[in-house]
UniProtKB/TrEMBL annotation:
<dbReference type="InterPro" id="IPR017211">
    <property type="entry name" value="UCP037465_Znf"/>
</dbReference>
<dbReference type="Pfam" id="PF09947">
    <property type="entry name" value="DUF2180"/>
</dbReference>
<protein>
    <recommendedName>
        <fullName>DUF2180 family protein</fullName>
    </recommendedName>
</protein>
């Protein structure tokens, strides 16, 4: 049986099992190359949507996480380096 490997580790010529897949782009990610956030859950309700009482977990690769980060967060990262 073959397990999914982390895309970013494979790019660096390392072999590390993935713990999940990116919610946005679908690549396999290990714990070192993922970001886990709690996002409000939504469910369709009639013609609209309702927010669920508890947040849901959303796993993304670091590339997607930083690409979708608010501008202020991205600018703060750049000013630190």
């Amino acid at each position: 049986m073959s397990l999914m490997k982390c895309f970013d580790c494979a790019w660096a010529e390392e072999v590390v099992d993935a713990v999940g897949v990116c919610h946005h782009c679908g690549v396999g990610v290990c714990l070192r190359h993922c970001h886990v956030a709690l996002e409000p859950g939504h469910r369709l309700a009639g013609v609209g949507q309702s927010t669920l009482a508890r947040p849901a977990r959303e796993l993304t690769c670091l590339t997607c996480h930083f690409a979708m980060a608010p501008v202020q967060q991205a600018e703060a990262k750049r000013s630190v380096h």
